[in-house]
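Colleagues,

For the teaching module next term, I've prepared a clean inverse folding example: a structure given as tokens, and then the sequence designed for it. I'd like students to try predicting residues themselves before seeing the answer, so please don't circulate the second half yet.
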């Protein structure tokens, strides 16, 4: 467990540094918005393309890792929808607040997952986490936008609009391009590989700084019951679902540990942006994200160690 915790320390130190920089040095929102767009549209896609294009996919249980996490997302989504009437009756949870619970329980922070998997298992860890992205990101976007359109948005989006928003996701295209290069066995010139590698090495550190800059620590003082329930769903139930499905697919060792890593990370910070755009309860989701990111430093080592 100390080894896993040691791999997590630099990840969470970068998140803390991002929070400090946001409060003391880069205090303007537009500075972080620019960094986030650079990471999201350029640096992170470069990492995914370079990693997947060079990966030995024959040595990776693509169906097992992707299938386990895909089923975990479906199961958690169904659980959240089943709990909605109870949460509404007991906590007075309205539609916009429910969408924040849903996003907080189902989405995953890919920056953290890739950083931890890479620190623990080098290139194979990043490859497995990238496979997880291919499996999870399209489905999560469909589910999140669909739930927001149903329970929060003043005007429901049409399915063509939802599918268009998903099709514009640069991370999906990066994964598909990297896989296409790999499967077609195209020889990538060394200068292009070194260029993509240099961009990719920048992406994880900057991505984690962006996560830290988005934290709202004031939400830790008096967390809402809905936020605490969501933290339990994401940091405890989701890892159990992911590892359970992983075991059912026959995964073990590094493969199962990466599934546990991807299932136990905090929710994605870009869910906050989506909540603001589509009428969700953005302050509640900000509180959820802050609580999850703070507690994940304790829960992630536990689940990864249990299955490693």
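(Answer key — instructors only)
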């Amino acid at each position: 467990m100390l080894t896993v915790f040691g791999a997590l320390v630099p990840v969470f130190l970068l998140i803390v540094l991002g929070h400090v920089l946001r409060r003391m040095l880069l205090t303007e929102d537009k500075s972080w918005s620019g960094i986030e767009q650079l990471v999201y549209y350029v640096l992170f896609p470069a990492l995914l393309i370079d990693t997947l294009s060079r990966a030995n996919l024959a040595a990776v249980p693509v169906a097992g890792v992707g299938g386990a996490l895909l089923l975990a997302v479906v199961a958690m989504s169904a659980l959240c929808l089943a709990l909605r009437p109870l949460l509404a009756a007991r906590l007075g949870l309205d539609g916009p607040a429910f969408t924040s619970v849903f996003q907080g329980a189902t989405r995953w922070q890919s920056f953290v997952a890739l950083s931890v998997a890479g620190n623990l298992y080098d290139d194979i860890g990043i490859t497995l986490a990238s496979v997880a992205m291919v499996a999870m990101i399209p489905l999560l976007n469909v589910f999140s936008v669909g739930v927001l359109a149903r329970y929060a948005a003043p005007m429901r989006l049409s399915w063509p609009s939802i599918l268009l928003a998903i099709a514009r996701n640069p991370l999906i295209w990066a994964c598909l391009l990297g896989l296409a290069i790999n499967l077609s066995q195209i020889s990538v010139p060394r200068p292009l590989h070194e260029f993509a590698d240099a961009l990719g090495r920048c992406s994880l550190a900057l991505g984690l700084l962006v996560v830290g800059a988005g934290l709202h620590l004031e939400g830790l003082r008096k967390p809402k019951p809905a936020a605490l329930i969501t933290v339990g769903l994401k940091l405890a139930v989701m890892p159990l679902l992911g590892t359970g499905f992983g075991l059912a697919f026959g995964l073990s060792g590094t493969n199962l540990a990466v599934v546990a890593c991807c299932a136990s990370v905090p929710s994605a910070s870009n869910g906050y942006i989506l909540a603001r755009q589509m009428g969700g309860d953005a302050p509640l989701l900000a509180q959820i994200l802050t609580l999850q990111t703070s507690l994940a430093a304790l829960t992630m080592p536990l689940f990864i160690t249990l299955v490693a």
